[in-house]
Amino acid sequence: MTTEPTSKSQSAKHPAVLKLMGGAPFSQRMQQVYDTLARRAYELFESRGRQDGQDLEDWFRAESELLNAMPVEITEADDQVIVRAEVPGLSDKDIEVRVAPHRLIITGNREQIRDQKKTHRERSSDEIFRMLDLSEEIDPDEVIATVQNGTLEVVLPKAHPGKNIPDAVKAA
Hints:
Layout: E1 16-17, H1 26-47, H2 55-66, E2 67-68, E3 72-76, E4 80-86, E5 95-100, E6 103-115, E7 121-133, E8 144-148, E9 151-157, H3 167-171
Parallel strand pairs: 2-7
Antiparallel strand pairs: 1-8, 3-4, 4-9, 5-6, 6-7, 8-9
């Protein structure tokens, strides 16, 4: 996968540090998610006999079937923004974090296997996708993302901490 722990001997007591993905493939990843949702929404449209008028319902149903909600908590300080996301059941190998100066994208994919009967096995993909537009410019080269006990924490240092503070206040 695209994430790597900092050492092979990390335990549950120490958070796994993720390798961040560059900001360039944002549009590629977003296009992949959009295409997958569009295919599923079209399947729903076809299953209803191609009746117009329920486009949004089909799209929202496709989203709810294919993407799981990922609650986030965003905390902002003078010099950094901290994003915490609940990612239960996902390890550092299952999560991708992509950053750009004003954007954070978190994606993850976990394979789930459900046994229905002894002779039937069902496998489904459990994907998360969250894109956050940030109000402050961050420094993508200084971002640190860790996973521990089902929580992803992304520390995003601001590119220009204290930039909005007037010079008169700084001098005082």
